[in-house]
Inverse folding.
């Protein structure tokens, strides 16, 4: 199952992990998208965007209009959410202009600990 991991890490820590994997030519079993803070993660993954991702999971390429129909929302609002998810790396745009969620699962990781 192709999974993407969303986590909260300091940018320096995320880059160190990326550089290590690149240097060692390690093949990653899952893709990872890191956010600098939990607030940024939740800013990108709003409730409506999460619903959109759930709807697109396993759907294959669809138009923005079709995605809007499936989540029963207006095209303009879905277009804004698609733009944010494309910028975050959670959606892909196909050669034909359709959007696609290229994963079968999302795993969210972050630790809340005492200061």
């Amino acid at each position: 199952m192709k999974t993407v991991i969303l986590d909260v890490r300091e940018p320096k820590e995320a880059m160190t992990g990326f550089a290590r994997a690149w240097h060692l030519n390690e093949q990653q079993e899952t893709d990872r998208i890191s956010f600098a803070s939990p607030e940024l993660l939740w800013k990108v993954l709003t409730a409506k965007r999460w619903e959109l991702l759930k709807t697109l999971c396993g759907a294959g390429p669809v138009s923005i209009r079709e995605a809007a129909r499936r989540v029963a929302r207006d095209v303009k609002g879905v277009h804004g959410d698609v733009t944010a998810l494309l910028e975050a790396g959670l959606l892909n745009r196909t050669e034909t202009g359709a959007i696609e969620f290229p994963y079968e699962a999302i795993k969210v990781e972050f630790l809340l600990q005492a200061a």
